[in-house]
Amino acid sequence: MNDTYATLRAKYSATTKQIAGYENFMNGLMSIVKAGAMDTPTGDKLRDYVLNFVKNNSLSAFNHYEDNTYVRNIIGRDASGWEAIVMSWKKGSRTAIHTHPQFASYTFADGEFLVEIFEPCEGGIKLVNKLTVNNQMGLYAIGEEGKFTNHIHRLTCLSETAHSLHVYSSDALNGFNLDDERIFE
Ligand SMILES: [Fe+2]
After folding, report:
1. Alpha helices of the chain — where are they, by DSSP H?
2. Is 147 part of a structural domain of the chain?
3. Mean pLDDT computed over 18-23
4. Assigned domain for 70 exists
5. How far is the CA of 154 from the centre of ligand 1 (A)?
6. Is residue 185 part of a domain?
7. Distance from the CA of 153 to the center of ligand 1, in angstroms?
8. Residue 123 CA to ligand 1 centre (angstroms)
9. Distance in angstroms (rounded) separating the CA atoms of residues 147 and 8
10. Bridge partner residues of 90 (DSSP)
11. CATH, residue 118
12. How far is the CA of 46 from the centre of ligand 1 (A)?
């Protein structure tokens, strides 16, 4: 994987909004980031922090949807590049197959999702895990510093509407769009 891949920016810039009012959430998140190395203990703490937030806070302020894509609501962005985004989904909304920055977490708040996880292989990518999620849970992956090759996945909304909260160590729109890759089963 290298810089010849298209990024996600062209596809998703138009459905990205900035939402104020979540500064405390972002400050708490950044205090965890700054307290430790980018490793599994820190990843676990970040996952639990976001999961706790969605358990205790309704995301009904994000009940604005679009028919053909999910809506990206940026609720926090740190000068270092870290960002937190609430995604608003309608049934059938599906991401590209895509990569992520060094740290990527995604937490399911409500609704039902199909999660497909891929790995690079000779000549393309292969599906290595497929799960249906209909409860509150958080997943995360840590990759290489400074690269956007971390964790290949595709998310699809299976319920009428849904929300998820995503945390990235850098602008996720710089991730690569792998929709044109050959998929091996
Ligand atoms: Fe993603």
Report:
1. 9-12, 23-35, 40-56
2. yes
3. 92
4. yes
5. 7
6. no
7. 6
8. 22
9. 15
10. 161
11. 2.60.120.10
12. 16
Which residues lie closer than 8 Å to 163 by C-beta, 6 or more apart? 54, 59, 62, 86, 87, 88, 89, 109, 110, 111
Amino acid letter for position 122: E
Residue with tokens 């977490």, as numbered in its chain: 105
Alpha-helical (H) ranges within 57-92 are none
Question: Is 1 inside any structural domain?
Answer: no
pLDDT tier for residue 3 given thresholds of 50, 70 and 90 = low
**What separation in Å is there between the alpha carbon of 36 and the centre of ligand 1?**
23
Please tell me the least confidently modeled range out of 10-14, 20-24, 112-116, 126-130: 10-14
Cα 38 to middle of ligand 1, angstroms: 19
- 176 vs 14 pLDDT, higher one: 176
**What does DSSP assign to residue 94?**
B
Q: How far is the CA of 175 from the centre of ligand 1 (A)?
A: 8
pLDDT in tens, 126-171: 999 999 999 999 999 999 999 999 999 999 999 999 999 999 999 9
Task: Please state the domain count of the chain.
Answer: 1
- What is the rounded distance in angstroms from the CA atom of residue 96 to the CA atom of residue 163? 17
Amino acid at 168: Y
